[in-house]
Q: What sequence folds into this?
């Protein structure tokens, strides 16, 4: 098969997950009395008790792969192939970026009740909780590492959103500060929007995190940069906590969710930490990472 139109990534899902998760925890400083972003599976005890309210984030990390765009007037020999359909759709809709970035949905695991995509979609319930794919806007490991290094340096020089006062979240400069963080700006965050019955679906986008398309054949509109997504969530938290969870209401949600998707029959309340058990199940069965934005009001 001719694959000259493909551009392979140098990154891995494990690297992306480790770097993004660590950085999201890093931007909420350890001295914070109001906000903290916690990776549940890394903090085995007490993660749900540190703060009185929290909003769950469910993240599925993807490696972005690349495609060369179709030139105007070029006729494909195999137009029905999935990746060729992406190239053709983007040319037809005048979003023919160079390179085209994309990722494919995850195959259904052998013993899984449903596709990962559908699980993630069911967990995405704004404004109470959010589920989305996270993928880098580069194919090169050197470029990716430089964006992380630049983000660390800019914290030192005052770009960090929470550096001076947490009240800055209530000002117009808060968006500016999140938008200036190269590492967050260098990722796309796409919430799943359609239930699937096969994994033969793709999202495609530009290196700027724009021109998002869902294949089969739909353009998505909005700001899908990770920096904008995180900024919007913190804004919601600042203005209201009415939609957030506490420990008891979240355990109730988990129990209902497990019943709906037949994830397990064990009584979750028999565990010392049901939230940790839920995080472990999501990670091992569906490769979905759970983080909590915890806060006091």
A:
């Amino acid at each position: 098969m001719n694959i000259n139109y493909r551009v392979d990534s140098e990154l891995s899902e494990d690297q992306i997950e480790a770097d993004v998760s660590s950085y999201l925890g890093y931007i909420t400083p350890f001295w914070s009395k109001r906000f903290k972003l916690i990776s549940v599976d890394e903090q085995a005890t007490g993660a749900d008790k540190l703060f009185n309210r929290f909003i769950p984030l469910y993240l599925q990390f993807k490696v972005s792969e690349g495609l060369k765009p179709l030139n105007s007037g070029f006729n494909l020999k195999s137009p029905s192939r999935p990746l060729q359909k992406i190239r053709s759709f983007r040319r037809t809709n005048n979003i023919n970026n160079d390179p085209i970035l994309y990722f494919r949905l995850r195959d259904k695991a052998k013993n899984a009740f449903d596709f990962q995509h559908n699980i993630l979609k069911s967990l995405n319930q704004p404004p109470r909780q959010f589920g989305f794919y996270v993928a880098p806007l580069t194919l090169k490991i050197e470029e990716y590492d430089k964006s992380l290094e630049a983000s660390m340096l800019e914290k030192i020089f005052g770009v960090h959103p929470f550096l001076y006062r947490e009240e800055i979240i209530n000002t117009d400069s808060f968006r500016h500060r999140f938008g200036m963080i190269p590492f967050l700006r260098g990722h796309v965050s796409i919430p799943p929007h359609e239930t699937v019955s096969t994994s033969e679906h793709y999202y495609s986008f530009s290196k700027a995190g724009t021109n998002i398309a869902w294949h089969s054949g739909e353009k998505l509109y909005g700001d899908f940069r990770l920096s904008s997504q995180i900024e919007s969530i913190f804004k919601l938290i600042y203005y209201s906590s009415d939609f957030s969870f506490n420990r008891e209401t979240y355990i109730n949600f988990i129990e209902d969710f497990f019943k709906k998707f037949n994830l397990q029959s064990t009584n979750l309340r028999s565990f010392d930490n049901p939230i940790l058990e839920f995080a472990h199940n999501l990670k091992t069965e569906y490769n979905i990472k759970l983080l909590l934005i915890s806060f006091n009001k």
